[in-house]
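Readers outside the structure-tokenisation community will struggle with the description of the input data as it stands. I therefore recommend that a typical entry be quoted early in the introduction. An entry of this sort, consisting of the sequence and the corresponding backbone structure tokens, reads as follows:
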Amino acid sequence: MRDMPLVLIVDDEIIIRDILAKMIHALGYAVMQAANSSEAQQMIRQHTPDLILLDMIMPGVDSIEVLRSVRDDEALKHIAIILISGIDDLEAVGSFIEAGIDDFLPKPFNKALLTLKINACLSQMKSRESSDEAKQLMEGFCRDLSHDLNNALTGIIMTAELMLMNAKSEPDKEYIADIIESSEKITGLIKERRKALASSTHK
């Protein structure tokens, strides 16, 4: 998330957009406005807002198509979306919930409720980003560690094999063979863990 979260207001009524913009500015967030779905889709792809306030009834492209286009895009699906509506149609709202909205805000707006919902969505988004970043750091650490361990074990195995070739007594040969066997087992385990990590990373 950028230093100042960016909120995109999508509503065909300029009065509603201006009211929301003033409220959101007062919270310390940056604001952009879109008067229709097509304009919203363009702004979303150009600016990748942190949060979208999406009016349920819009002219032109249906609002739910805007929602689906965001949720179906790997680069955009993390954006928080709050549905705003002045109609009391639970079935219609339910279709938006199924499509992936994060929250719902009824009209007329209650300032305290608006503040609570916006802050909650942005906070959850920040927590997800922090969790993803920590996961990436851990995955990177594990990859580097397994690579270094694998190199060290390869060196041990090669040295032990040379020692085995020059060993004279049977006890020495058995001892060195045990070192090689143990090192190869550990190498195999590291390879398995690296494959598992790579598989989970690409899911």
Q: What stands out?
A: The chain has two domains: 6-109, 134-201.
